[in-house]
Amino acid sequence: MKAILIGIISSLFFAVTFILNRSMELSGGSWMWSSSLRYFFMLPFLIGIVLLRGNLKQLLYELKMNPLKWILWSTVGFGLFYAPLTFAAASGPGWLVAGTWQFVIIAGLLVVPFFYKTVETEYGVQKVREQIPVKGFLFSSFIFIGIVLIQLQEANGGIGMKMFLIGILPVVVAAFAYPLGNRKMMEHCKNDFDTFQRVLGMTLASTPFWFIIAGFGAATAGLPSKDQVFQSFIVGISSGVIATVLFFFATELVKHDQSMLAAVEATQSTQIIFVIFGEVLLLSAPLPSMYSFVGLLMIASGMVLHSLFSNRKTSIKVNELETKSL
User: Fold this and answer.
1) Which terms are listed as keywords in the entry (predicted)?
2) Which of 6, 66, 97, 322: CA 20 to 30 A from 279?
């Protein structure tokens, strides 16, 4: 339950990304600067935190020893996550981006077979491919249907092939890249690094990618405006530092349980609730329709089911351990 609550709080700070990216898109800022500036602004804050905690030297040594693995999965988890997301925000309507991003709750389950777990068999200790948790998939699908209902009020005109390519497909790529990169780095780090170290390590390792994106931004759109720099700074602190650290910490708590990981990743579905009401308050967007309220109810119900199932599973494991100890 603790991990789920932390996940919901992180989604509140993540929602700032969609609202401010929408604002920057309306003011004509380049998506390349919006994406790269976020990670540039994250660096000094994360370096300061890790330095104060006395863990920077250990992290830098690890990056030196395993640079390729860090660069690969950090570029996947951060680069192929946020660059497509900001591209879609600049190319399609905000409701489409925020709604499609919630596919991450399904994508997080579909990447499970990319991982292995160690089990004891009659032939000794072996690595076995992880299986998609069926109940978690059903609960997440229930949440996703609720999200689709929320989008119905905005999709009256239909979605053509062009909108699919620039507003949906990039977000689907981001939805797979984020949990895959995050989990691969958790698998590599094991228990050797804390959440702050892992986020800083991934930010540093993805920096070459962001320099390339920023270079293209400078060549095609010139330097960013002061307003875009300021809003990117807010996104960097709120979404890049606070939300990312909270979310990574929540996944760290349950990293050995694929069902619990699915539940924590499903908390990101609450982003759309925060985005809807944030746009109503800050961007004068219209109030949600009846379809949207039904969708919100389905999201809340799906989260409750995830929480109840996860707590029940945890209780069963505790009872089994107590029985074995007796």
Assistant:
1) Membrane, Transmembrane, Transmembrane helix
2) 6
- Token look-up 């996104």 returns 235
Tokens describing residue 307: 């929480």
Residue type, 200: L
Residues 6+ apart with CB under 8 A from 56: 47, 50
Token pair in block for residue 195: 């959440």
| Nearest in space to 34 (alpha carbons), one of 80, 75, 72, 85 | 85
> What length does the chain have?
326
DSSP letters spanning 93-161: -HHHHHHHHTTHHHHHHHTGGG-EEEEEETTEEEEEE----HHHHHHHHHHHHHHHHHHHTT-TT---H
- C-alpha span between 31 and 29 (Å, rounded): 6
Q: Which residues are bridge partners to 118 per DSSP?
A: 127
Q: Of 187, 171, 18, nearest to 104 (Cα)?
A: 171
Question: Which pair of tokens denotes residue 182?
Answer: 């995050």
185: tokens are 């780095």
**Structural contact between residues 237 and 115, judged by C-beta atoms closer than 8 angstroms:** no
Residue corresponding to tokens 């909108």: 163
What is the CA angle 52-58-64, rounded to 5?
Answer: 130
The type of residue at 204 is L
For the chain, 326 residues long, the average pLDDT of each consecutive 10-residue run is 85 79 71 93 94 93 95 96 88 67 77 73 69 73 72 58 70 90 88 89 97 96 90 89 88 76 72 73 67 71 64 47 38
The whole-angstrom separation of Cα 282 and Cα 296 is 20
Task: Return the pLDDT at 75.
Answer: 97
Name the nearest CA neighbour of 245 among 49, 101, 93: 49
Q: Distance of CA 236 to CAs 75, 125, 210, 248, 281, Å?
A: 17, 44, 14, 16, 22
Relative orientation angle of helices 94-101 and 2-26, to the nearest 10 degrees:
160
Q: Which residues of 294-326 are buried (b: 16+ CB within 10 A; e: fewer)?
A: bbbebbeebbebbbebbeebeeeeeeeeeeeee
Q: Across the chain, which distance is largest between two alpha carbons, in Å?
A: 69
What amino acid is encoded at 44 in this protein? P
